[in-house]
C-alpha cells in the first residue's frame, strides 16, 4: 500500500516538477554573456525536488521540463544537454536518503556534504559529459563547448549552493522533527 | 511577458491535423536524429526544403510563429559567432584543404571557404528541424500527445507525467504572474530601474510561494489520483488515442525512406561529412 501511493506521488511530482522547471527556465533565467548559458534558478528547485521525491522524479522532471523548454524556445531540443540535465537530476535525487529531509533535521554537516556533492555532480555533468557529447554527436569545436560547459558548471553550482540551500533549509523547517514528541508517563 | 509563450495548438483542418499524434512524433524524432548525425549539406537542404513545403500545407500563420523564429535566429547567430571566435580554423581541419578569402594562413582570424561552409552546415543543423517542430507543436492536441507517447512504447506512468506537465504549465505560469503582481503591490521593485540585488531578493520572494504552493499541489493531485485508483492496472486506455489510418502508414513509409537515404549517404561519403573540396 505504501509503495503504491509513493509511485503515484512520483508520477505527479515528475509532472508538476517539470511544469515548474519549465516556467523557471523560461522566466527566471539570468544570462551570463556566454551564449546559451544562464544562471538557472531551476537548478536550485531541482535540488529540493530530488531531496523530497528521489532520483526518478527529479531526473525525469528536469528531462521533460528542459526538453519542452528547448522545444518551444529553439524549435528542437539540444539532446546532449537535456540528457545531462536528466542525469544530474537523478544524481541530486540519490542524495535524498542521506539528507532525509522529511524528518526535519538538517544540520550544517549535511548541508556542507550536499554542496560538495552537487559541485562534483555538476562538474562531471557539465565539464566532462556535456561537452564530450557535443563533440561526438554535434561535432562542435572542442574549446567552444568546453567554455560553455565550464560556465554552466560554475553558474549551476552557485545556483544550487544559494537557492537550493535556502529552499532545503526552509522546507526542512516546515517538517515536524522526528522524535519531537515524548510519551507522558 | 505579454506575448503568448506556449505556441498554440489549433485545429486547422488540414491533413496534418488528421495524422495521428504518434505518427507525427515518430516522424519528428526520426528526422531530427538523422539530421543531428549527418553533416551532408545536400541532405540537410533537401529535408529543410521538404519541411518548408509541408509547413506551407499546415496553414500556420507567420505572425503566430514570428517571435519564436526571431529567438531561434538570435540563438543561431550567437552560436555561429562563438564557434568562429573559438575555432576559426575548424573547417580547415575537417575538410583538409584551405581556400583563403581574407587574411593569410598565419593570422588567427582569417576567413576560409571551408570555415564558411562548416558554419553554413551548422546553421542548417540548428534550423532544419524548426519547421518540423512547429508543425508538430501546432497540429498536435496536447492531450493526444501523452497517448502518442504511450503508443510508441513509453510507460503510461511517464506519459501521464508529461500530460500533467503540459496540463499544469499554464497554471504555474498564472501562479507566477499572480504572485509577482502581489509582491509588487507590497512594494517590491522588480523592474529594470531597481538594483540588481533588490531584484534578486524580489525574485526570491516570488520563488518561495511558487515552489511551496506547487509542493502542496503535488500532494492534492496525487491523493485525488490515488482515490481514482491510478496505477492499479498494467495498461491504460486513452480517450484521445487515434487509430492508424492509411495516411499514417504513408507518412511513416516516406520518413523511413528518407532516413535510409541518410544512412546510405554515410556510406557514400565515407563518414558524416560531405566534402565538396575534394575533387
TrEMBL record, chain B:
It is a multi-pass membrane protein. It comes from Lactiplantibacillus modestisalitolerans. It is found in: Membrane. Keywords: Membrane, Transmembrane, Transmembrane helix. Its main location: membrane. The chain crosses the membrane at residues 21-37, 43-58, 65-87, 116-137, 249-268. It holds the Pfam family CbiQ. This is Energy-coupling factor transporter transmembrane component T family protein.
Amino acid at each position: 500500500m505504501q509503495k503504491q501511493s509513493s509511485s503515484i506521488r512520483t508520477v505527479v511530482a515528475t509532472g508538476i516538477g517539470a511544469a515548474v522547471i519549465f516556467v523557471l527556465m523560461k522566466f527566471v533565467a539570468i544570462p551570463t554573456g556566454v551564449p546559451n548559458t544562464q544562471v538557472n534558478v531551476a537548478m536550485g528547485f531541482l535540488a529540493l525536488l530530488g531531496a523530497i521525491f528521489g532520483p526518478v522524479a527529479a531526473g525525469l522532471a528536469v528531462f521533460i521540463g528542459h526538453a519542452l523548454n528547448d522545444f518551444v524556445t529553439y524549435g528542437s531540443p539540444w539532446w546532449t544537454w537535456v540528457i545531462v540535465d536528466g542525469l544530474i537530476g537523478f544524481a541530486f535525487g540519490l542524495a535524498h536518503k542521506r539528507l532525509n529531509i522529511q524528518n526535519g533535521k538538517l544540520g550544517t554537516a549535511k548541508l556542507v556534504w550536499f554542496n560538495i556533492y552537487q559541485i562534483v555532480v555538476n562538474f562531471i555533468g557539465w565539464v566532462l559529459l556535456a561537452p564530450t557529447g557535443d563533440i561526438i554527436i554535434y561535432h562542435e569545436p572542442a574549446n567552444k563547448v568546453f567554455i560553455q560547459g565550464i560556465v554552466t558548471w560554475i553558474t549551476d553550482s552557485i545556483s544550487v549552493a544559494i537557492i537550493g540551500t535556502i529552499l532545503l533549509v526552509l522546507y526542512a523547517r516546515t517538517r515536524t522533527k522526528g522524535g519531537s514528541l515524548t510519551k507522558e508517563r | 511577458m505579454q506575448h503568448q509563450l506556449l505556441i498554440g495548438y489549433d485545429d486547422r483542418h488540414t491533413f496534418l491535423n488528421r495524422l495521428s499524434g504518434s505518427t507525427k512524433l515518430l516522424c519528428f524524432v526520426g528526422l531530427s536524429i538523422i539530421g543531428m548525425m549527418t553533416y551532408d549539406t545536400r541532405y540537410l537542404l533537401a529535408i529543410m526544403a521538404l519541411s518548408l513545403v509541408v509547413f506551407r500545407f499546415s496553414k500556420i500563420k507567420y505572425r503566430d510563429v514570428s517571435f519564436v523564429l526571431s529567438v531561434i535566429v538570435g540563438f543561431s547567430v550567437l552560436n555561429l559567432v562563438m564557434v568562429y571566435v573559438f575555432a576559426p580554423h575548424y573547417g580547415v581541419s575537417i575538410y583538409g584543404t584551405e581556400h583563403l578569402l581574407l587574411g593569410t594562413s598565419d593570422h588567427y582570424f582569417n576567413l576560409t571557404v571551408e570555415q564558411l561552409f562548416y558554419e553554413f552546415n551548422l546553421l542548417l543543423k540548428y534550423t532544419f528541424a524548426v519547421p518540423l517542430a512547429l508543425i508538430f507543436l501546432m497540429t498536435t492536441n496536447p492531450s493526444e500527445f501523452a497517448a502518442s507517447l504511450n503508443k510508441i512504447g513509453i510507460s503510461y506512468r511517464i506519459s501521464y507525467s508529461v500530460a500533467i506537465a503540459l496540463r499544469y504549465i499554464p497554471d504555474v505560469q498564472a501562479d507566477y504572474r499572480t504572485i509577482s503582481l502581489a509582491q509588487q503591490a507590497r512594494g517590491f521593485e522588480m523592474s529594470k530601474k531597481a538594483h540588481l540585488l533588490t531584484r534578486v531578493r524580489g525574485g526570491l520572494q516570488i520563488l518561495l510561494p511558487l515552489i511551496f504552493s506547487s509542493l502542496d499541489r503535488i500532494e492534492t493531485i496525487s491523493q485525488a489520483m490515488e482515490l481514482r485508483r491510478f496505477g492499479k492496472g498494467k495498461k491504460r486506455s486513452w480517450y484521445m488515442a487515434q487509430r492508424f489510418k492509411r495516411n499514417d502508414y504513408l507518412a511513416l513509409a516516406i520518413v523511413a525512406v528518407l532516413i535510409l537515404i541518410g544512412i546510405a549517404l554515410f556510406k557514400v561519403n565515407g563518414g558524416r561529412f560531405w566534402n565538396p573540396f575534394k575533387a
